[in-house]
Specification:
Elements lengths: L1 E6 L7 H17 L2 E5 L11 H7 L6 H13 L2 E10 L2 E9 L5 E6 L5 H7 L8 E4 L2 E5 L8 H9 L4 E5 L8 H14 L2 E5 L4 E2 L2 E2 L5 E3 L5 E4 L5 E6 L12 H4 L6
Parallel strand pairs: 1-2, 2-3, 7-8, 8-9
Antiparallel strand pairs: 1-14, 3-4, 4-5, 6-7, 9-12, 10-11, 12-13
Helix pairs in contact: 1-3, 5-6
């Protein structure tokens, strides 16, 4: 299976421009043979736009979801999108996975909200999301979630082989891409797709460094700090001798 990941600048609250870019990148990914493309956290309407989170948030199944489903169906390529979801009076930092037929196959609300802005804008989620995607057990996380080994371990324990992670990681936190994500992938024997922004949004500069990391901690594809469309074959076999054994070998010291 080929997996794609888009790293690009924020859409600045312009949902129409965001959907147009989403369409173009999804079509490009499909032409390259990808079965899924992952976009950054809160791609719609924007991450560092607390003024828009509540004002523009939409319900699951609303206009944004309908149009993204159409884009996926037309391209014949699945889409994983980070967006602001409204459920009644509550707003969530959400991620939704649409398959190549435009059907929702996974929906997730960020559990680990980061910093004062997120905690003021959103309610935390309370459930994991593990689902089948074309024969692969997949899961969704969002940004800060993947930095917690316990959450990744829980997903691996539910059978997840692939974790799709929309993110909005600022410049200066490159260690998440270079250390945390490879460590989580290797520790738990999973593939992780970590899709970040680049550029600047309302004074916040993003670090880029998106990557698709295999279960042996190797980057199957990695971006720098500018706009990029990454595509990797995630079905390549990993040498069994390079797979992690820490979970099997772990010895707990009695207290």
């Amino acid at each position: 299976m080929k997996l794609a990941l888009y790293q690009g600048p924020p859409v600045g609250g312009d949902a129409e421009a965001g959907l147009a870019r989403l369409r173009a990148m999804t079509q490009a990914a499909a032409l390259a043979g990808a079965r899924m493309i992952v976009f950054p956290e809160l791609f719609l309407p924007g991450y560092n736009r607390p003024d828009l989170h509540g004002a523009l948030a939409q319900p699951l199944g609303g206009d944004w979801c309908t149009r993204v489903a159409e884009i996926a169906r037309e391209a014949g390529c699945g889409v994983t999108l980070g967006w602001a979801e409204r459920d009644g009076e509550v707003v969530y930092n959400a991620a939704t996975c649409f398959d190549a037929y435009g059907t929702v196959c996974g929906h997730y609300r960020k559990v680990q909200l980061f910093g004062p802005m997120e905690k003021a804008s959103f309610a935390p989620g309370s459930d994991y999301c593990v689902f089948d995607f074309e024969g692969v057990k997949a899961a969704l996380m969002i940004c800060y979630d993947v930095e917690f080994a316990g959450h990744v371990k829980a997903l691996a324990g539910q059978g997840a082989q692939l974790i799709l992670v929309p993110t909005a990681n600022p410049a200066g936190f490159g260690h998440v891409s270079t250390a945390f994500v490879p460590a989580r992938a290797a520790e738990m024997g999973v593939t992780i797709a970590y899709a970040n922004f680049c550029g600047e949004e309302e004074g916040l500069r993003y670090g880029g460094l998106s990557l698709i990391c295999g279960p042996d901690a190797r980057a199957l594809a990695a971006a720098g700090t500018s706009e990029a469309l990454l595509i990797a074959d995630i079905s390549q076999p990993v040498d069994p001798s390079l797979r992690p054994t820490q979970l099997d070998d772990y010895r707990e010291i009695p207290r």
